[in-house]
Each structure stands twice: as C-alpha cells, then as structure tokens.
Amino acid sequence: MPNPTSRLLALLTLLQTRPSWTGAELVERLEVSPRTVRYDIRKLRDLGYPVEAIPGVAGGYRLSAGTSVPPLQLDDDEAVAIVIALRTATGSASLGEAAGTALVKLEQVLPRRLRGRVSAMRQYTEAARAPGGVDPDLLIFLAGACRDHRRVRFGYRTRDDTESRREVEPHRVVQVGRRWYLVAFDPDRGGWRQFRLDRMTVRRPERARFVPREAPSAADVVHGLDAVFARHRAVVLVHAPAAQITGRLPSTVPVELVDDERCRVHATGESPGALALNLLMLDADFELEQSSPGLDAALATLRRRLG
Predict the structure, then answer these.
(1) Could you give phi then psi for residue 198, rounded to 5 degrees?
(2) For residue 52, what is the DSSP state?
(3) What is the pLDDT, as a whole number, of residue 54?
(4) CA dist 111 → 65, 101, 117 (Å)
(5) Distance (Å, rounded) from C-alpha 166 to C-alpha 252?
C-alpha cells in the first residue's frame, strides 16, 4: 500500500471495526513493516485520534473514547445507513435541529454514487412523522440556505388562514416545543420574523446571496418565539403553595406568592385549548382572575367531555 494517505485511512478503518488489534495483525493486514505501523499510529494521534497502546507480550492498539469527536471513516453501507437514520430522526418532533444539521453536513460530502441508493431506500421506506415533525428535505434546504446566506422565497399561511408571499434572509432553524421555526430577516417588513415550517410552501432553488446582518441574540430569539406561545394568556389564583407549583412549571412561567397556601400563576398557551390543558397540569384547584372567551370555551369543552 504505497500511498501514505490510503494506508492511514486503511489503518483507521481497521481500528474502528474491532475493539483491538495486535501489532502483528496490523502488519499482516496492511502489508507493511512494524516500524511503518508505529509511524502511522503516531500520525493518527497527531490528528486527534485517541489510539492507545495495549501492554503485554503480544501488545497491540485500540481506539478509545476521547475528549472530542474526530473524523470518522465510513464505508458505503454505513454512510447510507446513517443518512436514512438521520432523515428519520429529523422527521421526529422530539429531536432538535442537531439531526438536521448533521444530515446537511453528511449529504454535502456524500459521493454521487451513493445518492441513488439513498433515493431508492427513501422511495420504498417511509416513516410516519409525529405531529409537529418537519419534512427532512425542507429542513436540509433551509439549513443550507442559512449556511450559504441565500434568500428563500415561500408562501406563508397565518393562523387566520391569510396567505402571503415572502422573500427573506434566513438565519437559523430552531425547534420550540413540538414546532419548528425559521428565524429570518424580512426586508419587505424591515425586521426579524419567525415562521412556522409547517405553514410554509417553499419555492426552490434558493434565491440570490445576501450579506449577513447582525443577528439577534439568543435571548431575543427565545423572546420572539415565546411571544408566539403567549398569544393566549390567563391569570389564575392557585390554591397551593408557590414552592409546590413552581416545581411543576417551566422556569419562564411567572409565579407570585400570595400567602403560605396560595399563589398566582401567569399562564400562557399557543391556543385556548393548549392553555386550558396547561392549567389542568397545575394539578391543583384554581380560580380564573383574568381569562378570555376562547379559554372559557375551551374549559367548558373539557368539563363537558369529562362528564
């Protein structure tokens, strides 16, 4: 194996396929001298791979867990399997954008010869996405547009079914609860906006490149997305100690101390029905101090269904 790079990759592949190898086994498999094996082991260590020497009469080497993730050497079957697994994981509402960004990175370097195999497997296998799940192809497209600083054009349907056409400068795809959002700058409206992916009809390919703007802070993004869930509000007097109720709620929900046995909760929800369920999850008696017709109707529906 005269090519040093090919030899190094072959050694790495061997170390990744078994818990350990003796020096003699590596010499035989790679058809090189023991000195060359030791040299290549040092090169792998220099590249960040945690290769350990195994003491003993026979001696040997193993690839151990390190403090960071070095590049992995995958064969064709492994690469295809990981792409399919990531597509399935990305379609799940229970996972964050990590699966999507990993999928973008892998598909970017996937050899052309393997893309046909991936397409064939997708054609004949299908995983049902949970409510709130996102189409992996859409996530890949938007993540790529964010990375490459290219505008995207899409039709958007609001909560009241109003249709509009947008062309925005995408910044980031984020997941909040069971929903996915695109955080982007809308030049026509002169400000940062959040768009639910399941309400978008995206036109492809991407549009022209843009110069990235100063992005909002993480706190501003969270605040903007939280406003989506805060459209429906209620203030309730809860007949339970504040310490008890605080332990059942996210840290972002305001809880006021009234006395030793009562507290006041400022609850929010994405919809009247979601807000009603949030109140039931307090698992304590409560009185509505501030409500809305939508919430009153949702609570009445729950009372009727529960008999």
Answers:
(1) -75, -5
(2) E
(3) 86
(4) 28, 18, 11
(5) 32
Q: Is the peptide bond before 136 cis (omega within 30 degrees of 0)?
A: no
pLDDT tier for residue 196 given thresholds of 50, 70 and 90: confident
Bridge pairing between strands 179-186 and 232-238: unpaired
Residue 236: φ, ψ to 5°: -125, 145
Q: Is the pLDDT of residue 239 over 90?
A: yes
User: What distance in Å separates the CA atoms of residue 24 and residue 2, rounded to the nearest whole number?
Assistant: 19
The amino acid occupying position 100 is: G
The answer to whether residues 188 and 151 touch, using CB atoms and an 8 Å cutoff, is no
Q: Look at residue 127 in the predicted model and tell me its pLDDT.
A: 47
Expressed in percent and rounded to 5, the helix, strand and coil fractions of the chain are: 45, 25, 35
Q: For residues 170 and 81, what is the distance between their CA atoms, to the nearest angstrom?
A: 30
| Average confidence score pLDDT of the chain | 78
Residue 158, C-beta contacts closer than 8 angstroms, at least 6 positions apart: 164, 199
| Length of the chain (residues) | 307
Own/partner pairs, 5-10, CB within 8 angstroms, 24+ separation: 7/32, 7/36, 7/40, 8/40, 8/43, 8/44, 9/73
pLDDT tens, residue by residue, 120-143: 555 544 444 444 456 667 777 887
> Cα angle vertex 168, ends 162, 172, to 5°?
105
Q: Which residues pair with 185 in a beta bridge?
A: 169, 192
Cβ partners under 8 Å of residue 237, min gap 6: 258, 262, 263, 264, 286, 287, 289
For residue 238, give the 3-state DSSP assignment.
Answer: strand
Token reading at 25: 């086994």
Query: Considering the entire predicted model, what is its pTM?
Result: 0.47
Query: Exposed/middle/buried for 130, CB within 10 Å: 0-12, 13-18, 19+?
Result: exposed
